[in-house]
Amino acid sequence: MPLTGYSNTVTVTTSGLLLDIYTNAAVAYSVRQLRVSYTGPAIRVRRSSDNVEQDIYFDVNGNLNTSALTSFCSGTNGFITTWYDQSGNARNATQTTAANQPQIVSSGSVLNNINGLPTIQFDGINDNLASSSFTSQSQPYTIFMVQKWIGSTYRYLLDLALDSAIGCVNGGVLQAAYFGGTINSSLTANNTRNQLYYALANSTTSQISINNETPVIGNAGTGAANKVTIGSYGGNLFFGNTFMSELVVYFSNNSSNRTGISTNINTYYGIY
Amino acid sequence: MASINGYIYQAEQEAINAREAVDAYYGIPVTPDDVTQNWVDYQIANLNTPQFWYIVFDESLTPVLGTPTEFEVIQPNRFDN
Predict the structure, then answer these.
(1) In this complex, is the C-beta atom of B14 within 8 Å of any C-beta atom belonging to chain A?
(2) CB contact under 8 A, A81 and B75
(3) What was the pLDDT predicted at A170?
(4) What is residue A179's DSSP assignment?
(5) φ and ψ of A233, to 5 deg
(6) Which of B34, B38, B80 has its CB closest to that of A170?
(7) Taking the model in full, what pTM does it have?
């Protein structure tokens, strides 16, 4: 009903979410809302007490509705069965095997290991989430990921195809973008730093930059992308032990927007 | 080569039977529409000779599958090389 007289209207800014500003993402998974027009759930969760599943949405501020999550997982553990794709391309990342589902609630408490914000824990043993395969996308493509390593064996974070992955080579500390060849960030891996991991797959002028370092540019190969697997590389072979909160991939060269996208992400997560 | 702690099977059907036994123990899936369709899944070691199938150990499997064993699985060298 319209109010007359004194006006106390609250205007909510609804045009500033990441994918509203930087459009045409190919896939987008996050614990925050990334697009104003996205009205679907953020995640689907299985609780360990009775294995019942439920979709969890965002709250009115675009944050993961942790009240709904803790209510659903009261006193028990919660595992991700689906990380919904907010890009509009319906490339949801799922895990149909309970033992391989990454965790988001432990004994009733939401994991919040990246600056107190909700995060998903991949165990480095057998956890991953994967989309269905899609038509192979040749380079260029651009990756933004929010993560934090766990433990001291650093492996793989993301697999987009046999010749397309990011993470650490052979359990070492070099943080790489691999698209058939490898380029390494100047920052080596450790388990205390929150990270915004950026990579551009663009053949001889591929890029990698972690936490807004000056991008390292080099020949990382010409590998295409045909599937999103989060938390492992090589199907079910090499698993990364990591927290993860956001992954956005563009099937285009978005290096000109690296600073803007990074700033948007960093403003929310307070990474660097 | 990776050292795996888990359960090893010489035939795929044995691995399927083990997976089904664990599903029955934990009542998975709760409903047919659930995303979660299995409690655990098996892998194939197709670079080993002879090839075999295996399930990676998880504490939740002990009541059904018993004590795990250590074995070696040959893995391909790609990015991991």
Answers:
(1) no
(2) no
(3) 73
(4) S
(5) -135, 145
(6) B80
(7) 0.92
A107: left (phi over 0), alpha (psi -120 to 50) or beta: left
The residue among A163 and A218 whose pLDDT is bigger is A218
User: How far B57 CA sits from the closest chain A CA (Å)?
Assistant: 10
Q: ipTM score of the complex?
A: 0.89
Residues 6+ apart with CB under 8 A from A103: A77, A78, A79, A80, A111, A120, A121, A123, A127
Distance of residue B36 Cα from the nearest chain A Cα, in angstroms:
4
**Would you call B76 and A94 a contact, using CB atoms and an 8 Å cutoff?**
no
Q: 10 Å Cβ neighbour count for A53?
A: 20
Nearest to A82 by CA among B21, B27, B37, B32: B37
For chains A and B, count residue pairs whose Cβ atoms are closer than 8 Å: 79
| Strand positions, DSSP E, A48-115 | 53-56, 78-83, 93-94, 103-106, 109-110
Q: Is the pLDDT of residue B81 over 60?
A: no
- The H-or-E segment that residue A176 falls in is strand A174-178
Cβ partners under 8 Å of residue B50, min gap 6: B10
Q: What's the mean pLDDT in A89-94? A: 98
Give which of B57, B79, B80, B81 to mutate to test A binding, by max A Cβ within 10 Å.
B79
- Any chain A CB within 8 A of the CB of B39? yes
Q: Give, rounded to a whole angstrom, the gap between the first and last alpha carbons of chain B.
A: 11
**Taking CA A236 as the corner, what is the angle to CA A220 and CA A174, rounded to the nearest 5 degrees?**
35
How far is A18 from A268, CA to CA, in rounded Å?
A: 10
d(Cα A13, Cα A6) in Å, to the nearest integer? 22
